[in-house]
Amino acid sequence: MEVKGENYSVWYEPDTAIINFTGALRLSDMDDYALISQLLNDVVDKEPPTITLDLQQLNFLNSSGISMLSRFAITLRRKNTIKMIIKGANSIPWQGKSLKNLQRLMPGLMLELE
Amino acid sequence: MIKAEELLENVETDNSTQIFGDFISLSSKEQLNITFPSPTLPLKSRWRHNGLSADFIAEYSSSYFPINENDPNTLWRQVAVKSAVNYIANELLENAMKYCEQHTNYTITIHIQAESNEIVFFIQNKISTLKAEKFKTFIKEIFNSSADEFYFRQLEKQAEFEDNSSPGLGLLTIVNDYCAKLAWKFQIQPQVIDVTTMVHLAV
Q: Is the ipTM of this complex over 0.90?
């Protein structure tokens, strides 16, 4: 399961239930993010106990992308059967500013900034 | 030195101009201005220009925040400023590209003024009267709400109605995550509204 574009790549590792994001995501709106949303939802359908989003190589995410991740966090909150871990990097400034909002949307979300 | 032009919300300076927030005038001699011509390419084809431009604007702005070998804090400061400028410029350009009226003479211009402790962005474009009225309603809600409360309310609403658009979320992230101040100037012109969005980022 993978979605690739000119400057980014998103793929799923089934053994670890980790969804990796790399590059810069500046897609135009939620319709453009639909393929990535579909990948996320396909992983949810597999019902792993925990889903990890590894964003440590994601250098840029525009507001439409933040909106997509926010919607995913709300989906998991409502489902209430799957935990989420987000791995980020302190060295990437946008992550320190914006990822903590996801914890407010999904209490219990574990945010690991290294 | 950047000076404040108006301090009151929603002040009509004359019959054709309406200002919201602390709109700061363009007074510095050093500005970076980029004007995009009226589009002939479809939006999807020129969407990549936003990122290219934001990357350039961020790199350009970083010159105002040089690294001092004797002060390790200046390295992180430059990284953080570049990231913030890139994000804000990208959001402003995306909004302008998505919502501008298309006409031969309608350009989009972004101005950036950088000083050692602040960066001010202005983006000017033309929108329809209908979009302008909707935008003003949104702006009034920004001033009447706390930054985070409005932001999270919009996110929950979007998820509730499975709304694929995210209007205004970019501006709300600029306020909520970057603690920047926003202001606007609307000017009535024949058949269109000229709107300038200002973002004031303290460094």
A: yes
